[in-house]
Amino acid sequence: MQLINAILDNMQVKDIMKNKILKVSKTDSPNDIIKRMKESEVDCVVITDNDERKNNTEFLIDFIDLINIIHENISLDKFLENNKFTELETIKTDDTVGKVISLFIKGYNKIIPVYDDNNIRGIICPKDMIIFYNNLLNKTQGLFVNILDNIHDAICVVNKDLNVLVWNKSAENLYKIEKENIFNRNIKEIFPSALLPRVLEEGNTYENIFNSPREGCYNIISAKPLLDNDEIIGGVSCDKDISELIRISELLNKTQLNLQVLEDQVSNLNESRFAFSKIIGNDKKFREIIEFSKNISKSTINVLITGESGTGKEVFARAIHMESGRKGYFVPINCSAIPGELMESELFGYKGGAFTGSSREGKAGKFELAHKGTIFLDEIGDMPLNMQPKILRVIEDGIITRIGSENSVKIDVRIIAATNKDLRKLMNEGLFRKDLYYRLNSVIIDLPPLRKRKLDVPLLANEFIKEFCISYGTNIIELPQDTMEILINHEWEGNIRELRNLIERIVILSKHNKFDISYLPNDLTAQNWDILSTLRQNSTGLNDKMNNKEKELILNALNNSNYNKKKAAEFLNIPRSTLYFKMKKHNIEA
Ligand SMILES: Nc1ncnc2c1ncn2[C@@H]1O[C@H](COP(=O)(O)OP(=O)(O)OP(=O)(O)O)[C@@H](O)[C@H]1O
Predict the structure, then answer these.
(1) Separation between Cα atoms, residue 114 and residue 100, nearest integer Å
(2) Which of 2, 36, 315, 549 maximizes the CB count within 10 A of its CB?
(3) 323 C-beta closer than 6 A to ligand 1
């Protein structure tokens, strides 16, 4: 109704009035006027003669008035004298249509003349108004149906007898019932357990009730009674189709589950990759170091790992973290790789907008990231002097403050530092703080260089061969004994890293051919030339010895048989043709 009123109040009388007006004189005969009205197809006429009884100089009479005049056999003039016009309502061209409608609603049922500057400009007939109003109702009803059909939720309206009055397109789709098949039918007949009968019976509102009308179809229903002056005149329900949501949520659950499984697998993989069990080495001293490291893993004691480059310091640090069972991350930071001026922000982070170019949200530092985990300060010997007291403070108080922030954060981080430098020497040179050194070295794990556990070389080499052959998809290659000897005797300044890189090179070069000694880098073969030549010499000597022995045996057989080749061949237990061949090979005259 509000919508109709708004439409009516936005239309002016001049938009709907009839402006075809037939003007007649009061001296004209009523029969003649009726005839002209028919010809002109108008419902009423305007009598234009001046009359002092009215302000208006024009009067309006309609078809019925004229019939009465003829019936009563009086003149038009007499009819006008009877003052009937005082009963006519008047209206102006720019009045709202709403004003006209309210006149008719109040019971007025005659033509309304429309005036503008005291002149009749048009008329409004009750009959036309009924048609206009009816059209308007139909249009607004169409508009409502259109609106309802475009609502994503299924809407159902029933009257107080539970007969369906409204059933929108979404309801058709959701319940697979066409409007024509449900209109005016009792909702209970179609949905015996529908919510609306309960709503009308109890007068209660229900919200967000879960419902699954058929397999794979899920919805949430809200329903409330429709009231007119506290009297229930029907009910409306609104059903949200959440089948798609449920499907997506099931999918999400499944995906989450898969993700969890994958995450578990990855973390198992990672864990096992870095576990102590994956550290290769049978050297007695080295095994003792592994055992010792395992034992201190569970504590939170700070650890300093020393050893030449490539001896496995990071491998040990990761294994200690893994074995410790700490839930946080293992966060490695290479102190020699970070410029001094960035070190503080890398380690402690910064508050948003702390300095030019810093991100607005700020950034957590490595210490924060390692909360409940382990931070690995690799190459600690390269830690700038000005940073060392700050590291000491974190070790002592477990507190960090982001650059630019006034708030300190308490963290729980296990510290493992590593170095291939002599920290004592650095201390003596004033490049490393004593207090920091003594804080870091609660436990020292000193890893031996590879040249001090030479017997682990074949073990490591074969493990790396397996690893790279698998990752490059080649057949597992076997290193000849002489090559292995070279590897065992090599100095390995780069330690395990150098060995690992070399094996990778060999595997790549051997991909399409068999392994060849030339695949070893020149410096390695040059360094080990002595071993190589001894090995070669040994193998050449054997061949020569065997050849000499063969010649000696053949000459003996020939001498004993007086150079009778048949007898000599029989003696040597070889075919005569083979004897001839071998005599030729050893330059023995026949
Ligand atoms: N015992 C081991 N078993 C198997 N692989 C090892 C072992 N020790 C080291 N490695 C491998 O050797 C390489 C070097 O190890 P790592 O980075 O731990 O050495 P590092 O002492 O930390 O070196 P740097 O001092 O240069 O940082 C890595 O590829 C690592 O996987």
Answers:
(1) 10
(2) 315
(3) no
What's the 316 CA to ligand 1 centre distance in angstroms? 8
Dist. CA 418 → ligand 1 center (Å)? 12
Q: Could you tell me the distance, in angstroms and rounded to a whole number, from the CA of residue 250 to the centre of ligand 1? A: 45
Pocket test for ligand 1, best of 309, 314, 380 (most atoms within 8 A of CB): 314
> What's the mean pLDDT in 168-197?
92
Whether ligand 1 lies within 6 angstroms of the CB of 500 is answered as: yes
Same domain, 403 and 383: yes
Q: Which helix H or strand E contains 416, and what residues bound it?
A: strand 414-419
Whether residue 52 has pLDDT greater than 50: no
Task: List, in order, residues 6 or more apart from 203 with CB less than 8 Å away.
Answer: 225, 232
The whole-angstrom separation of Cα 527 and Cα 492 is: 11
Greater confidence (427 vs 24) lies with 427
Note down the domain range covering 20.
2-134
pLDDT mean across residues, the chain: 85
Helix axes 2-9, 126-149, angle to 10 degrees: 130
**If you write DSSP's letter for every residue of 230-298 in order, what string do you get?**
TEEEEEEEEEEE-HHHHHHHHHHHHHHHHHHHHHHHHHHHHHHHHSGGG-----HHHHHHHHHHHHHHT
Q: What is the DSSP string of 325-343?
A: T-SS-EEEEETTTS-HHHH
Structure-token match 């058929």, residue found: 214
378 CB near ligand 1 (under 6 Å): yes
Kindly report the protein residue whose alpha carbon is nearest to atom 12 of ligand 1.
497
Please say if the pLDDT value at position 357 is more than 70.
no
CA 470 to chain centre: 34
Residue 100 lies in a domain: yes
366 lines ligand 1 (CB under 6 A): no
Is the confidence at residue 61, as pLDDT, over 60?
yes
**Domain containing 393 — which CATH number?**
3.40.50.300
pLDDT tier, 84 (very low <50, low <70, confident <90, very high otherwise): low
What's the 279 CA to ligand 1 centre distance in angstroms?
A: 9
More confidently predicted of 551 and 87: 551
Rg of the chain, C-alpha, whole Å: 54
Give this complex's ipTM.
0.98
pLDDT of residue 55 exceeding 60, the answer is no
- With vertex at residue 198, the alpha carbon angle to CA 197 and CA 201, rounded to the nearest 5 degrees, is 85
| Structural domain contains residue 89 | yes
Q: Is the CB of 453 under 6 A from ligand 1?
A: no
Considering the domain boundaries, does residue 266 fall inside one?
A: no
